[in-house]
Amino acid sequence: MQQTSVPGRPASLLRGILNKRLKPLLPVVFLLTAAGCHSAKDKKPKQDKGPMGLRAEAIVVKPAELNAIYESSGNLLANEAINVYPEVSGRITAIHFREGVPVRKGDLLIQLFDGDIRAQIQKLKVQRQLLVITRERQDELLAINGISKQEYDNTVAQIASIDADVEYNEAQLRRLQIRASFDGVIGLRNVSVGAVVTPTTLITIIQQVNPLKLDFPIPEQYKGVIRNGDAVRFTVTGSRDTMSGQIAAIQPGADATTRTIMMRALVPNPANKLVPGAFANVYLTLNRNSNAIMIPSQSIIPTTRDKKVAVLRNGKAELVTVATGLREVEDVEILHGLQPGDTVLTTGIMQVKPGVEVKVTKIRAYPIR
Predict the structure, then answer these.
(1) 220 and 267: one domain?
(2) Which domain holds residue 149?
(3) N or C: which end of the chain has fewer CB within 10 A?
C-alpha cells in the first residue's frame, strides 16, 4: 500500500493560513509602496531655472540746473568801530557832540582844558619874535664883521629851538582835542563837562554803519568754490526782506577746532535798517551747473571702498561705481559714473545683484523740475 507524503499537508495548510491573514493587509502595503515611490520621485534634483526676477521702480536721469545753496549763521558788524578814550588826563571844558547823531571825520567831540599849554605857546612866540629881531640886527653886523659868526649861529639855533618847542606844545594841544576818526554815528556819552578823565575813561563809541560787515563760517571744503565779489543773501530777525551783499575777504586758514573758514561780506545799509550785532541767516550759492546729474540720495549704495548705483541695462541690473558731489535735501549730484539717459533703480536696491533680471513697475524722468 502506497503511503501519502506527510509534508504535503502542512504546506497546503500554511498557504491557506497566510492567504487568510495577509489579505486584509494588502491595501496597507499598497499605500506604503505608493508613498515610497512618491518620496523617491520628490528626491530627484530640481532643475536650475536661473536668478529670480526683481520688481523695482526706476528713474531716467537727465541734465538739470544745480544751484547748491549753503546755509550758515552770521553776525552783522560795524564796518568801523572804536571806543573813544582821551590820550592824556585832563578836565573836560566842552562837549561838541549830541548822542546818536552822525559825525564827520575830524569833527571835534571833546575839549580838555588847554589854558596852560596855550600860555606856554604864547610865551615861546614872544621869545622867538625877540630873537628874530636880534638876528636881523646881527645880519647887518655880520656883513661889516661887527659880530662873530659864532654869535650869529647861536641866535639862529635859539630860534630853531623855540620853533621846536612851539611845535611840541601845539602837538600837546591837539591831544587835548578829541576828534572823530572817521565818518559814523556816535553813541551814548559817559562823561559830562567838568569831569576829570584819564586815558582809561570811556567817553563814547563811534560806529560806521554804512556799509556793514557780515561775518559767517563755511566748511573748509568749500573754500575753493567761493571768490571775492560773490553775492551772498541773508535775512535778519524781525524782517521778512532778503538782503544781499558781496564777499569782501576770506580768512586764509581754517579754524583747528571747527574746521571752518570765516568769510566777510560787505552789506549796503543806506537807510540804517540794519544794526551792528544783529544775527543773520546767510544763504550762499556754492556753484552753478546747468548740466548736473542728480539722483535721489536713496539710490546710493554705500560700500567700504566707494559708492555704487544700480543701473538697468538690457533688462538686467548692473552696479556702477559713482563719485558724488554736492547734496541737497533729497538729491545728490553725480560727478562721474552716470550719463544722461541712464536708468537708475530707486527701490529694491538692497536686493540687487549683478545680472539679475529686473521688471520695472514704474519709471519717470528725473529730476522733475
Answers:
(1) yes
(2) 114-175
(3) N
